[in-house]
Write a structure and sequence with these properties.
CATH architecture of the largest domain in chain A: 3-Layer(aba) Sandwich
Number of helices of chain A: 11
CATH class of the largest domain in chain A: Alpha Beta
Distance between the termini of chain A: 28 Å
Oligomer: homooctamer
CATH topology of the largest domain in chain A: Rossmann fold
Number of strands of chain A: 11
Shape of chain A: globular
Helix content of chain A: 40-55%
């Protein structure tokens, strides 16, 4: 409910073109649709430039199908993340326009694509091969948001020469998403090499003292490279959304 | 060592204007100055657009003074964060051009100011009064980086009306830094209200189950608002540097 | 063993209408029945206004059936919570009068219903769709206790407009049970909007830094909204029982 | 902003007695007063029946004084909790109408006392002598809220006879607040003995495996007594506020 | 290698009845038998009055069979604890003299029974039905050690009357083993009621804040009842062995 | 309240030698004395053979003095543990018959000494010099309980020869209390060498990964030596009380 | 990129035998081969004397096969660790020259064996039978590195005589790898008995307070035996690689 | 007690030149001296090539002086680590031959210097200035052990060029000790660049998510660079002792 819309509403009441009860109703009508187990937000894109995304984990295939159909019926894009392998076939047969990316664990369809930006790509970096699924989740999300991207995989700090070769690519990037498990050292090194925004994604790869990703998470948070920010463990989607906020904000407001 | 500089150097060797040994020397000469306990990075700004910042914690007043003098001698700005209260007088009397901000726990002087941007300000939000020192650290850092900012303090989620009033301000911001302790719920609410970049700073305020800031940190990392990213507990400096990366990147590359 | 019952017993001994040995026996006869693996409490309702509830987790189907039959034989209601999916068919075929709620993971039958209260309902709120099973456990428990309830699902803080619409409903409630996972911010926001009793239930939904519900739990415990109290992770039953204590106490003692 | 107030406002706009801009202004005028470091909520009591309370921890004496004066100037009561011993003299000399309770670590003055309820008292129980300060914080808070209370101290489970004697008192209580450190077993025992609302407060008393109160906290959360709810470690204030919500709700809505 | 045996050996060397090399050999011959993956201790009973016990967890069925056969061949008793359900049939068919207790997860045979003591029994107490398997592991172990025992199950603190009835039994016991999960409050209460040795066994029963038994463990360690000692989570065997040390010690040394 | 006492009381009521109200009074009169902040248990020794002990931590000097005087007035012994260094002079000057042991952090006086046992001593072992204060707390407690003891200090596992020399002493002991910090390995080694009861006391000595004693605690709980039991970190008192239970039990019941 | 190679390259540029662009190309050509999901390091042995090893965990069988083939094609040895049981058949049928060790969970082939050293063996010690798989991983790795080794299994500290017998073997060793779970005490004892390098490997064996190997890990890190160093939980490979660094370093540099 | 010494002793008994009782005595005489609070190990150097070192933390100045004097009286070297600042003056005035290093927090004197090795130095690396004290502790220890060393300070991964310059130095080192706090990434990078032994020392520098050094510790343990081993937080002494084991072992056994 923006001030503009409120002013317009009050003006119509003032002019008598809108009754008090109608005004009340409009103030109370909210842009979501209530199904039994969810309130589907149909105006999120309007408010945030980002369509609503369905976190697949913790929902039944039936619930996911229900929400996806509601979004599609409202002409919105659909992105489901962290989809359980066993739910995918049900979801795909019920909503055939969705495309499945089993590595990224997503299904998606882009109805109303964001205008594709022409600037430099976002580079998505992984420390190892095991970090690829999380990187792919980020890449799918960027694609849904119309943001160009490039892959730079398996350049962990124990073999530094692989990373150093890619420094020019990283310096040209609009932003860098760095995905790493185990000790999570890669974002510190990347953050020290480039001045662009760096978003760090810890992964749950590793064993023992890797603590299911907490070690990488804490390491990234205490990074000695200033200005590196962090999202939840395995949350490739979140890092891509952080980039989407940045791109969306630049589009609307222009450069600094 | 950029490719351009390397090509230039190789060209000079080729032309015989640079001897092999000199070239070797140049390749090995690195832009830092070695004092007993530190290697002061005199070219960081060149590489990252961000001058080197001194983390005061864990350093003696003498070490801080030594590094600060070296930076000033090289014509660089100085920012010292997390300065112990008992070190401040020594540092200030030894390096009188530094200004002290006791709430932010910083001393700083800006020698070579970044060109001040004219765009919308960064809004620095706190949940409570106890979060103000961390917010002030962010504000000092933004000022050193030449980025305009605005305060929005004490708007925690338990009194939602205080925050809702400020939504237009938040929507106009270039980015929002949200500083909160205890349960750290504010970034989720802000992230759901605005589409601009949101950087969350957990603070160590609170007691018992606040776990010295870990509860706020974990809460922000699992925020249900997509694309909110997080820095270390009490790290106002880090959030401001994340904004600096974003602004610096826009300046250089233009909007998306 | 209340003082009144003790006085009465002593009076009867005094008057000679009760022998010393009989008195001893009565003092020692305790209102539970001993089966091999459990002491079934047949007088809990008498003492607490709440019939004994069987925690299904950690018990075999055979043990659950044994205890349920003993309670039914004593004319009591039965509520089994956290019933393993594989135990449900066995329990239902052995004790056919039980009704199964697979979402809530309960089986129950109400033999001796509490008189249904006519006051305002308890509102059970969830942040997301994944929190619904825990909310349903609370709703089943409230129903067993004869307490009217209403659902308000999927109103998490990242889409605040969904919650704000429901504020009048929440303010009219006898009590509010707020069920949320991830960062667990919803009880703080609800607690700041209403003055009625608020019971917060963290859920194990989320991943990574959600720490299996500990993040939501700690967040709720450090809530900046005063007077919000908390139960164990996923313990919808516990929150409903807290409401039952409140309702039971009001019934007996009248309003303040 | 209740629906009634909104309807009234819209009616006045309709009737022309309120201009659009004035209406906008009124919609934006929020009931708090902005001082540099805090937004003092002057209408909380109106909204919640509970005046705003100042958490002393993390605030300077100057900030506490500033907020307290603003509340007093608005005719509100003042309660400051977790006040640092060294701040107390400054606060008391600047705001002489405040009374200091050094054991409870509070200063308070009740300007606008809640009507004193006549019903049964709230019983505040401690397991040991070391838990008394937390219990006293609860007692001061109850007093500010006009709720009668009674003490039952040092009745920990290792000497069960001390507790059993008091069962009749506990059964008559409007609610019981149980304060315990170390293993935090007392709320389970009390919760099994009485049917009234039980609010458990873990304390940081104990050493080693007591983990600064986390052991008591976790123990209370996993209590085998159903319907016991829990607040943060050492948060006597929070438990009292939970009781205040209950009493306030009963007053307004009548018994079930 | 006791001093007596050493003296005897040295005497024989002195007298020339034992050659230096033989003496060396004897000194080096140690009372265990080396199989590929284990050194089976054939003299433990001699040294400790307790035969060697096989921890089944982490060993293959083949390894368990190999060790058990070696012990039996040496005329020793066998007790295997924490035996995986899928290993039991293999072990039983390979070593038919073993008896299986599936609830306790043990197989055992007593070849060389300790003389049965006639004194008061050890009472094994559980808080709930879910704690029974751990209690049964303790009971099997006590039986192998020839120590008489008695069961007292499902007497958790939330229904205190069930425990109070049994106080005379507990006071007569040689020792009490208290098995409890969730908040683990029962050993504190028992420890406060009786003066006999109390060994507390936390179990992994419970969910959420029960932390897989850590909450019960920490609670028991911080018990306010003095002199209660604790073993590892679910370690019924360990508690029984503590009792065996006590009984063995009394047998050898007589009462204090 | 034993059955015998209850029977006697009922008999007297039956015979008319005790009035109903007097009987009620007697049933309600409990053997503790209520001072403002504590209920001093004057009959603990009667019930447990162990006088009440005052945990000094968390109590003011005034509270300690109050409780100690009450115990002395009732003719009981006094033992105060974990007494803050700054409280000791106040306590000693107010209650001059107490003796101070500054290393053990205790004050004590034995009024009613337990009959000194003549059997083998309890051996109190430490891994290092830093563990001595905790060992001394155990030794003071044993002395108060009339149990003979012997010291074996600084025999940590990194210098095994120091321990091996003492094996005969350890094998003769009535029980062994093993006090160790850091990795806490000593109880495993001792437990493997002797068959007598072994009580392990982790200490908070060490740094970093010692985690304030948690590492030693967890190590002792997972000891590969069967039947070793554990008390809280730094709880020398608790280990001595476990021995007191054992000795007390043997005295009353005779050997097995 | 060593200085020598750089000098040689610059010399060739100087002499005109290498063009600037070729020189640039050579400087940028890095010794790895890029496949879709991995950058296979073909020169690691050159740089480190250790061929690249594939961590099987977190990679699909297809990815492992792809990397292994690339390494074999480059004439390198292959070692895959932590290979999932279900991946082994696929990998073995696709790359038949690999040998499978199911206990160690490795597949390996040594193409280019390191010259076998003749010195004293590395002794790999385990505390128990359950620790054998981790020890075998170390042994396979040592074999790949051409380092002679010897087994000493099941010599945990609870049966010290088994270890003491082996002291001469341990003292003769080039290095000792000590593998232990539960309380992880063995490295402290071994470290106190021998002066050779001791590398400790905690294992995830044990339950409850063993915390999945964290207790052993922390115990080893706080070992009272000086100079014992530690690797990750279950990381037998890492300990063997530490030995390989030591042996490789001695070979190149000679003794101290 | 080595086999050789045992054989010699037995030979003398055989020949009658040593009586049985004397032999017994000799077998029992152990090379330590017992003072009240410590058993000073006077033969450690003989057994391990490393003199006994006194951990200052947790000992009083008096105890440190007592042990140091005993060692000096036996002609041994003395090294005290982690000496409290307030104890240093007392220790130095009582034992004037000790030299104090306040940054390293050590006092030491080398009586019986190890023969100084001539090989390549050990390089001690720090990530930042705050890590210097821990590095200095390692350097003092190396000096006591007669091992040459070199400093390479403040070369953290956020400014990679500082480290890359030093690669040749690192590759020539006998071993590298890497000291780093915060995210602890430096050992991974160093371990990937060099093949020599790398010992990682996490420090407690950093705040918030640095968790007092645990984050660096866990990061180093999960390092993606193979064969890096780790010591306790801030344990510079331990890393130096690991190097001493390596050097000592090479001296005695020669290269592989």
């Amino acid at each position: 409910m923006t001030p503009e819309r409120l002013r317009n509403l009050l003006d119509r009441v003032r002019q008598g073109t809108l009754g008090v009860d109608e005004a009340l109703g409009e103030l109370e009508t909210l842009p979501f649709e209530d199904i039994e187990y969810a309130r589907v937000d149909l105006h999120r894109k309007l408010r945030q430039g980002i369509p609503e995304v369905i976190l697949g984990e913790g929902k039944t295939a039936e619930q996911i199908i229900g929400i996806a159909k509601r979004l599609l019926a409202a002409g919105q894009s659909v992105l489901v993340t962290r989809l359980a392998a066993e739910s995918a076939p049900k979801v795909l047969s019920a909503v055939p326009e969705l495309r499945h990316n089993p590595i990224a664990r997503t299904v998606a369809t882009v109805r109303d694509p964001a205008p594709r930006t022409d600037g430099p790509p976002v580079v998505v970096v992984t420390a190892g091969t095991s970090d690829v699924p999380v990187a792919e989740e980020a890449l799918v999300t960027l694609e849904c948001a119309g943001i160009p991207s490039e892959r730079l995989f398996d350049v962990g700090v124990a073999g530094l020469h692989r990373l150093l070769e890619a420094v020019p690519l990283l310096r040209r990037a609009r932003a860098v998403i760095v995905v790493a498990g185990m000790e999570g050292a890669l974002p510190s090194v990347v953050g020290g090499l480039v001045a662009v925004p760096v978003f760090a994604v810890p992964t749950s790869n590793g064993y023992g003292a890797a603590l299911g990703g907490l070690t990488a998470l804490f390491g990234m948070l205490t990074s000695c490279a200033a200005g590196v920010t962090v999202v939840n463990i395995d949350n490739g989607f979140g890092a891509a959304m952080a980039v989407a906020r940045l791109v969306q904000s630049e589009r609307v407001k222009g450069p600094a």
